Amino acid sequence: MRRWIIHVLMGIVGASLGITTLPWVWHLFRQEGNAFNQEIVNGLIGAIIFVILSFFMSNLLMRALKKLDQKITRVNLSKMVFNFIGAILGLTVGVLLTIPLSLLGVPVLSNIISFVLIIGLLYLGYTVFDKRGDEIFKIVFRKRKEVAAVDKPVVKEGTTAQHAMILDTSSVIDGRILDVLKTGFISDKVIVPNFVLLELQLISDSSDPLKRAKGRRGLDLVNSLKEFDNVEISNKDYKDIREVDTKLLRYASEIGAKLVTNDFNLNKVAEIQGVIVLNINDLANAVKTQLVVGEQIEVTIIREGSERQQGVAYLPDGTMIVIEDTAKMIDKKVLVEVAKVLQTSAGRMIFAELVNAK
Description:
InterPro entries: Nucleic_acid_metab_PIN/TRAM, PIN-like_dom_sf, PIN_dom, TRAM_dom. By secondary structure, this protein is of the alpha/beta class. The chain folds into 4 domains: 1-74, no CATH class; 77-141; 164-286, 5'-nuclease (Rossmann fold, 3-Layer(aba) Sandwich); 290-354, CATH 2.40.50.140. The protein has helices at 2-28, 39-74, 77-102, 107-131, 133-141, 147-150, 169-174, 176-183, 194-204, 209-225, 244-255, 264-272, 280-286, and strands at 164-167, 189-193, 231-234, 258-260, 277-278, 296-300, 303-304, 310-314, 320-324, 333-344, 347-357.
């Protein structure tokens, strides 16, 4: 079906060009009085030529349409609308520029060059809004006073960034980096490589519902990260390397950046290669509430413990507290005193004794 549409469209284009251009060709060869120099015949000749060309170009055009379909399915609706606006603006400028050409009365200028000019500016408008859409959006709608504040330069090859942090896929999916950035504690440059985005896209296209949800959450988080001035999307890539982890390690080594990850294995490999690793889990453990033996706190008993007469409660940061003699106080608030604090590989565990039940 698509091939027939291509043939028909090419025929229409050919007929239009034949009607407008062939009279000039007949005039060029001094054949104005030729019996073929008629509007219908000229259109028919142009249509036949372009239909024949379409049979040779159909495979190329089909591949182009297939790539276009794939791109459309991947691009979100807001970006698609923004690109469409760019194409319309380019088309409008192209039409306006062809008006002086049409006044010259020379067919080759008023028709062929005008057509090429319109198509070229349409493509230019689409491309500019596609590649620089985020920056244009910030300039137009956010009205920032300085363009430099809007422009988020891409980290280019050879750039050094000793105070930069590169996010891997696991840290993006985890999502807590966004909360850390919101606190303002991170002023260093935060880099999200394009190959990490591609991996997130692959995960979001997975047939596994859980993986698909994680991938989409990661992509949504990247959109939120772009709101911060110190976050950059890098186009850096290594075509000779397939594994994303290997690309991350090489990129971090080249620019001297730190690697943010929750991946245990990547963490170990990075340490071996001398890459500084920042682990969100380590940060979370570091900022947990510090309790000392003898300190009293109020908690709510959630469930029974593994031992008889024990109750279990949790601090706001998720730390588990085991309290003696509270197994029958489920859903009650109690005042407890810290008796022991244990640090394990899985986190901290606090043992406490009942002071007063409420």
